[in-house]
């Protein structure tokens, strides 16, 4: 293990996260698997724990600035937290099953999750770029003042939370799509709400992964060392960098990573 290279690469991943808002798990987990040859189960657990610090710090900052929707955070978290613990529970059962190769299964599941998230985001990016006047049909908005709206929010949070517990991927990306489509938040509160709910989700998910015994602190600490200052610098550069070309490059990288995970492992 090269403990000098890991914080350096994590630093650049942090910059990408700060610049584009793309979740670090989609980049850090494959990096641990392919570059540092970390088993998938250890990579997922270590990435969940390492991502928690960034999300919690960001969530607290947005809460102080009042740039988040507290009701959306609350009702999504009520579903995503138990959902994520359920996902970790599934991992726990699979880990103790001698008939299943958990690392091989996780590699393919990671690939599918990253591919789906990237395809959704890339499709949205291309539509906005080439068809800026295209009016897509709007999805029904979750009304959190009603019982039905709250149940729908909790249900969506539970499904996505379970996927995060299993793979570490999409704590930000898939929830951002939900916040845009079903909560219809304005841009000012979208990022803060997304980061805050992800911080709560990952905080509890981390506790579940710690119970699995697959968290490697010799990976977590170097990732923190690089990614935390990286994301702060990326956030500063965000106002100057051209977002769409940068996102297209990152999405292309993610597509290649997911293809390798699904078809070449």
Automatic annotation (TrEMBL):
InterPro entries: TM_pro_TauE-like, TSUP/Inactive_protease-like. The keyword Membrane applies. The chain crosses the membrane at residues 6-25, 32-53, 73-94, 106-131, 151-183, 219-238, 245-263. Pfam families: TauE (PF01925). One of its GO terms (cellular component) is plasma membrane. Keywords: Cell membrane, Membrane, Transmembrane, Transmembrane helix. It comes from the Bacteria. It is found in: Cell membrane; Membrane. It is a multi-pass membrane protein. Belongs to the 4-toluene sulfonate uptake permease (TSUP) (TC 2.A.102) family. This is Probable membrane transporter protein. It comes from Microseira wollei NIES-4236.
